[in-house]
Amino acid sequence: MSNRYKKAQIATVIGIVVNLLLAVLKTFGGILGNSRALIADAVHSASDVISSIAVLVGIRAAQKPPDSEHPYGHGKSENVATLIVAILLVIVGFEIIYNAILSVVNGTVESNTSMIALYIIIFSIVVKEALFQYKFRLGTRIKSPALVADAWHHRSDAISSIVALFGIGLSIIGASFGIPYLGYLDPAASAIIALIIMYMGYKLAKEAVSMSLEVVLNDSETETMHETVLAVDKVRQIDRLIARSHGSYVIVDIKISVDADISVEEGHHIARVVKQMLLRNHEEVKDVNVHVNPY
């Protein structure tokens, strides 16, 4: 197992354990504290557990070596995991909105939210933001789209917890000062949380689909690759260089021109050096296909 995948797996397992504990804590806190917003936040944390498991499966699949059916490797497995996370976010968000509306329509809004819900939500905000910072920085460093997606899931949970904090806080104030209508802010906060969750799911799904379509890197992103190839001895020019994303890594297809009077063996050696230099100097490059043309 590569160091990259090992780090990603450790981060994902940590996220699963923390989210599971938070989901249980928020559920009991929401029930005991009569807070629909906190229960909605508990559902969000539970969805984090499911999404982290999906990410873990995707990361493990992505490290499999190339085979006859997947000659460029299994890098897109991480994008599939990201898409699963996105779909879960949208489904969870819709369910929370539905329950919030139902509580208002049926008049089942609680007006006696207790302080325990407030303490739990503050604790959750601190923990989730810490998880976001840890996973986002690691995912960016090791170029893991699934881990970055999971990090944003933690950030969306932290944001939703802040919304829940306002809803719960104002609901408690309403109960303390005899303002029953403030009790509606608790389910309203849960609905806002749901919208945040759904929007985050949309963004992640859009990014996952884009990555799965093998986006070609632009000229500025491949400029250093051109410099690397042109620095190779006896490469006269680059006829074409296409670098395309393949999940968390990049595949390069390149055509180079060399002197027409050299031997096939020498041309093959130059192509091999070009491939080695691109792999050595650009850690995001997983494979290189070199075609040699006469100059």
From TrEMBL:
Looking at the record's lineage, which domain of life comes first? Bacteria
Pinpoint the Cation efflux protein transmembrane domain residues.
13-210
Query: How does this protein sit in the membrane?
Result: Multi-pass membrane protein
Localization, per the record, is: Membrane
Which terms are listed as keywords in the entry?
A: Membrane, Transmembrane, Transmembrane helix, Transport
Keyword Transport, does the record have it?
yes
The Cation efflux protein cytoplasmic domain sits at 218-295
Membrane-crossing segments per the record: 12-32, 80-101, 113-131, 162-182, 188-205
- InterPro entries recorded for this chain? Cation_efflux, Cation_efflux_CTD, Cation_efflux_CTD_sf, Cation_efflux_TM, Cation_efflux_TMD_sf, CDF_Transporter
Q: Which Gene3D superfamilies does the UniProt record give?
A: Cation efflux protein transmembrane domain (1.20.1510.10), Cation efflux protein, cytoplasmic domain (3.30.70.1350)
Q: Which family does it belong to?
A: Belongs to the cation diffusion facilitator (CDF) transporter (TC 2.A.4) family.
| Name the record gives this protein | Cation diffusion facilitator family transporter
| Native source species | Salinicoccus sesuvii
